[in-house]
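Objective 1b of the project was to move from sequence-level analysis to a structural picture of ligand recognition. The entry below was assembled by the postdoctoral researcher (A.K.) and checked by the PI before modelling. It contains the amino acid sequence of the target and the SMILES of the bound compound, zinc ion.
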Amino acid sequence: MSTTSKYICNACGYSAEVWNEPDKAPIATVDTRHCLGCKSLVEVPIEFHGGGLIGDSDVVPSFLNRCPECNSSNVQPWNVRDGCPKCGEVMTQEAQV
Ligand SMILES: [Zn+2]
Ligand SMILES: [Zn+2]
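Corresponding predicted holo structure:
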């Protein structure tokens, strides 16, 4: 299991849990992406490895690299340097408790 960090925008209060590295779940690897459709940080399946489960490893599911919230395919890798997806201000990592 990968771990997540919580980032908070000090300007607008937007916060999101961000994967520190892609998480290899059994069906698909998920990673945090910046969705330009709904201007949010979302958890997006980026690599499918459950082909054996459905008996056809050539099938590439349509949900890959799509925002699960708004179904936009306009998702990009996000780095804290990119700032808040809502307002573009600096996001800071919330202290671990
Ligand atoms: Zn913001
Ligand atoms: Zn979206």
